[in-house]
Amino acid sequence: MRKKIGLACVASVLLVSCSGEERTQDTLQIALWDEDADDAVTAAIASFNEIHPDIDVQVTYTPFAQYWTNLSTSMGAGSGPDLFWMNAVNFHRYADSGLIKDLDPFVEADAEYDKEDYYENAVELYSYEDSLYAAPYFVDAIALVYNKELFDEAGVDYPDETWTWEDLEEAGAALTDEEAGVYGYGATITSNQRGYYNLIHQAGGQIVSDDGLYSGFGTEAALEALQFSEHLIEEGISPGVRMQIESAMTQLFQSEMVAMYPELSPMLGEVVEALGDKVEVAPLPSHKEDAPSSMALDGR
Known about the structure:
CATH topology of the largest domain: D-Maltodextrin-Binding Protein, domain 2
Oligomer: single chain
CATH architecture of the largest domain: 3-Layer(aba) Sandwich
Radius of gyration: 21 Å
């Protein structure tokens, strides 16, 4: 089955606002948070304007740290954007408040639009009371990114789909070179999406229960996942808390201070630009469960 994927930007979707503000038919306002997606967005607008040349599409980019405050304030005042990006963490709050439209009537009226063309978990994630409230637009994939040159120098085989937590730790220890200032692995603890969300899943747990009522952070699986990260830090295989706060894992990898770490697909362009052919990717290691699917559940 064909799956539609955007240019790997956010694990988010485009939603239609239920803002009460009256606007002219020839203006469409869009709110986004990642200006790095501008090329893809501009191309999408150009395609849209080929069909609707009289509609002026206005895009506003707001840094993620301020995005949600600005969005909730404008939506509450009835002056929110017509279309905007959303993530799983905030979706139900907006859907339950009636701030976004039910898209099922539009889907049913469009013979060319089929929910089955999209990843099933993306459709489920942005459905509310059995109706779709968001159009999947971009998909984040999380993979194990590694430096082939550091692996070759240490004589360590490249990671593949058979790797488990044990393989990760063993290879990470072999890659660690304290004298050279190289850590074998970056156990990302300052980012949920890159780090412990995946480990909790691999340990057999959930971030949120299937019914959406309970957190999975109080489970044995969550404890095991966080203890695994703590263990890698204590063993000197991974940078510690202070270093991760001072320098993002992406920057540590680009500085060749970390041999491998989990990374989001939108960051790969920056990483490859910095290190070129040294960079390769592999699936996330498994544990009690396989690595989670490529659908990321949170924004950045």
